[in-house]
């Protein structure tokens, strides 16, 4: 069902182009927008995006906020570009959040709330990322962490202070709100709502011109739509992979070193004896002696223990010292006097009296230096190689930090330099899907996309694997010259022209259906091929079952329309228009005290908190007065989107 339009709705950055449960309910109840709006007047200065009360929001905050948001989103989608972020509405969300943040801070200060310097200091001291090797706050670590995020200490402290004010202002208002049961029942009833209608797709391709644009038309269209052809940032890396087995180091121990290690570990090479013992513990000496006598008489120790209500256990082989530590000195002495297979004379331990049997005696004779030499040699070789590798990699890192070029480092240490093709942040080779990068590079790719050119770094990627790498070339995210994407641009122009005509057709069809013409007949009157129509007979709970990760917008629209109405809806990326016709709405009755009502109250708790928060911030905006500088915001939008003036 409805498969013909699901494929059109994919968002590159996960912005809410589709609505889930709460959004459907909100549309059904015609909920109002709570994000706020601009309040009168114009802002003349180009260095601020808005004024909240008497406080300016600088343009630099918007740029930083957008870059930070893109960096966070790139953790899920490494190839995301800033123009894509802007085109999908990300910048608008950053503007809203900035205005909200300043509004909350200014409102709190107006009424005497503040995040004092000492309180901010205490919060900073708690943050793990700012602690050094000692586990204490480190000033240099703190400053470096802020610099990596493009923040100044003043900006960071302001954010912390505003966050504390928000907790004081809004914490009590949004804490654990409870939706009234009657309201919850109305929302719950929507889950059982059933809607019947039709959805038609009018593809742009059905109206697209068959001949191409003129050169002037194509050039003008491409200039206005360059962001649709943005290529993500690419980086070319030079690198060398090496392991502990490829580096040439002196790891052969000398005879003197072997003799010294033999002397140091003399106890390890002396004659030794271990014993495996099965035992159980009883509370008194008389009971231990009586049970031991039965075992000596031929009864099995395990059976005697079980009959007496105890459990016998067999310990791992132990020498005398280990056994004394685990049991008692007296028991260890008795155990090492007994013969293999014999019953140990009962002895007292911390938990009681031990009844035991010696299962096995293992004797290891002493080893001479010559006999121990192979084992010591292997051990020393491993240690010496690890130490030598550590020293060598430290030398390489020091060379790099000192400014030595990667090629010189590679030559000095016998490493082989390789060069990658232009890579995307997700590790794929740009335009060459068949190319696979070496696995060692995957571990350092995120770092490589934060480095400057020709500043090599060394990284240990596995226990015995290292990679030294640098960025050889950075190709910023940009739209290619028209000549490189000419065919795609022509197809885009045709699709855009078709979309204009498809909208006109959707308007004609919508008008006819509103006048009583069946949707099928209205579509047929257009005399075009490629149209698709599907009947919908669906309950909201089927829509919200979770079987589909996203709900297609035509269905969202259908579940928010009034009964008997018809509406057009634009498809994404000039692919076409939909006509949505809703014929009938049926709501099944919901029983009193239904589990669905209680589940709805719980599920809407978080949404209610966010609703209260939004309403509170809207009220703060109105009281303080918020004036947007739409010109400055538009300038930032053009700059971030890479639009040409």
Could you give a short description of this structure?
The protein is an alpha+beta fold and 645 residues long.
Quickly count the helices: 26
Whole-angstrom Rg? 38 Å
Question: How much strand content do the residues show?
Answer: 15-25%
The rounded distance between the terminal residues' Cα atoms is 46 Å
Strand order of the largest sheet: 12-3-14-13
Number of strands: 15
User: Which class of secondary structure composition applies to the elements?
Assistant: alpha+beta
Estimate percent helicity.
Answer: 40-55%
- Can you tell me the overall shape? extended
Task: Extract low-pLDDT stretches.
Answer: 1-44
Mean pLDDT across residues:
83
Question: What would your notes on this structure say?
Answer:
It is a single chain. By secondary structure, the chain is α+β, with helices and mostly antiparallel strands. It is extended. The model is unreliable at 1-44 (pLDDT under 50).
């Amino acid at each position: 069902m409805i498969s013909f339009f699901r494929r059109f709705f994919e968002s590159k950055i996960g912005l809410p182009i589709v609505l889930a449960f709460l959004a459907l309910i909100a549309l059904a109840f015609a909920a109002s927008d709570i994000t706020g709006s601009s309040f009168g007047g114009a802002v003349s200065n180009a260095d601020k995006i808005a004024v909240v009360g008497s406080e300016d929001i600088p343009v630099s905050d918007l740029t930083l906020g957008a870059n930070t948001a893109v960096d966070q989103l790139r953790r899920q989608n490494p190839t995301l570009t800033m123009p894509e972020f802007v085109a999908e509405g990300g910048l608008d969300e950053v503007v809203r959040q900035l205005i909200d943040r300043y509004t909350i801070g200014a409102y709190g200060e107006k009424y005497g709330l503040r995040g004092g310097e000492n309180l901010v200091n205490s919060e900073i001291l708690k943050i793990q990322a700012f602690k050094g090797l000692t586990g204490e706050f480190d000033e240099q670590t703190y400053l470096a962490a802020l610099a990596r995020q493009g923040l100044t200490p003043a900006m960071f402290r302001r954010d912390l202070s505003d966050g504390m004010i928000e907790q004081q202002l809004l914490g009590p208002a949004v804490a654990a709100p409870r939706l009234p049961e009657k309201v919850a029942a109305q929302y719950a009833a929507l889950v059982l709502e059933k809607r019947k209608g039709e959805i038609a797709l009018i593809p742009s391709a059905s109206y697209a011109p068959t001949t191409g644009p003129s050169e002037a038309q194509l050039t003008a269209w491409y200039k206005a739509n360059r962001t649709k052809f943005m290529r993500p940032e690419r980086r070319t890396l030079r690198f060398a992979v090496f392991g502990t087995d490829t580096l040439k180091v002196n790891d052969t121990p000398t005879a003197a070193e072997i003799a010294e290690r033999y002397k140091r570990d003399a106890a390890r090479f002396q004659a030794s004896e271990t014993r495996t013992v099965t035992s159980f513990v009883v509370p008194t000496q008389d009971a231990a002696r009586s049970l031991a006598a039965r075992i000596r008489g031929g009864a099995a120790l395990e059976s005697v223990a079980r009959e007496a209500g105890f459990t016998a256990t067999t310990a791992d082989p132990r020498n005398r010292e280990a056994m004394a530590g685990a049991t008692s000195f007296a028991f260890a002495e008795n155990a090492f006097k007994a013969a293999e297979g014999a019953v140990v004379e009962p002895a007292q331990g911390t938990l009681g009296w031990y009844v035991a049997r010696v299962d096995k005696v293992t004797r290891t004779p002493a080893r001479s230096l010559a006999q121990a030499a192979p084992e010591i040699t292997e051990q020393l070789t491993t240690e010496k190689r690890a130490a030598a590798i550590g020293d060598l990699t430290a030398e390489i890192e020091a060379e790099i930090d000192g400014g030595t070029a990667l090629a010189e480092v590679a030559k000095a240490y016998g490493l082989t330099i390789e060069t990658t093709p232009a890579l995307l942040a997700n590790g794929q080779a740009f335009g060459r899907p068949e190319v696979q990068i070496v696995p060692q590079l995957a571990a350092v790719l995120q770092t490589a996309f934060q480095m400057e050119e020709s500043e090599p770094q060394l990284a240990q990627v596995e226990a015995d694997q290292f990679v030294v790498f640098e960025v050889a070339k950075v190709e910023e995210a940009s739209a290619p010259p028209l000549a490189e994407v000419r065919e795609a641009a022509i197809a885009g122009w045709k699709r855009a022209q078709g979309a204009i005509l498809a909208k006109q057709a959707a308007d004609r069809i919508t008008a006819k259906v509103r006048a009583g013409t069946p949707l099928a007949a209205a579509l047929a009157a257009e005399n075009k091929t490629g149209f698709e129509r599907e009947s919908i007979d669906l309950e909201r709970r089927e829509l919200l079952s979770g079987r589909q990760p996203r709900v297609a917008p035509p269905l969202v629209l259908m579940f928010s329309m009034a009964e008997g109405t018809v509406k057009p809806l634009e498809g994404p990326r000039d692919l076409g228009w939909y006509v949505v016709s809703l014929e009938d709405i049926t709501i099944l009755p919901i029983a009193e005290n239904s589990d669905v009502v209680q589940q709805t109250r719980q599920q809407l708790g978080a949404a209610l908190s966010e609703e209260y928060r939004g309403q509170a911030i809207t009220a703060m905006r109105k009281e303080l007065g918020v004036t947007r500088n739409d010109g400055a915001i538009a300038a930032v939008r053009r700059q971030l989107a890479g639009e040409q003036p």
